[in-house]
Structure formats: C-alpha cells, structure tokens
C-alpha cells in the first residue's frame, strides 16, 4: 500500500506543480502566459524578467513532471526548493506564515520523496 500512497502523492503534487509552470509559460489552465508572467516578474524586481519567467515556468514544469514520473528525484527536489525559495523571498514572505506555508509544504514533499524514494510505480 505504501507504493500506492507514494504514487498518489507524486501524481497529485507533481502534476499540479507542472500545471503552474504551464500556466506561466503558455497561459493554459487559466494561467496568465509568458508575457504577463514576465511583467509580473519585472514588478518583483527579478532581472532579466523574461529569463526569470522562463526559468520559473520551465523549472516548475520539469520539477512537477519528474516528481510525477518518479524520475531523477534529486533534480526534481532541487527544482522544487529553488522555485519555492524564490516565491517565498519575492512574493509571500511579507504575508507571514499564511503566505509561505504552502511553498514550504511543496518543497518538503519533494525533498521527502527524494529521500524516501519514489516507490515501485515509477520510471
């Protein structure tokens, strides 16, 4: 049953995280797309904004898909931690725990699965 539990966690967290990347890059699933994400990153002081938007979108998409597949988990966990650290530092830190708790949970799940392993149902 543990393997099914790990699969469920990997699929839900990984695919939802990948969707966030796709929203940033392509505007799918109700996202704002690359141009609006670039403008938002510009407003956050991230320079060059277009590169930071590209890295964020690609990082989230890659991290999520790798986690969901159970593939290259140390890489997936690293990408989760980096993207969530930037989100906390640039967006949600000022909001207190309510602002950054979700980012910390996502990073912890990714690191935890990387440490435990993906389970039997993984690439």
Describe, in short, the structure shown:
This protein has 123 residues and is an all-alpha fold.
Walkthrough of the structure:
The chain is mainly α. It has one domain (2-116). It contains five helices and no strands. The protein has helices at 2-26, 33-43, 49-69, 73-92, 97-116. The radius of gyration is 15 Å and the shape is globular. The two termini are 18 Å apart. The mean pLDDT is 97.
Total domain count: 1
Sheet-strand content, in percent, reads under 5%
Q: Please tally the β strands and state the result.
A: 0
Q: What is the overall silhouette? A: globular
What is the N-to-C order of secondary-structure elements (H for helix, E for strand)? HHHHH
Helix content: over 70%
Q: Return residue spans where pLDDT drops below 50 for at least 5 consecutive residues.
A: none
Can you summarize the main beta sheet?
Answer: none
Structural class: mainly alpha
The Rg value, from CA coordinates, equals 15 Å
Distance between the termini: 18 Å
Q: Note the total helix count.
A: 5
Task: Give the averaged pLDDT, no decimals.
Answer: 97
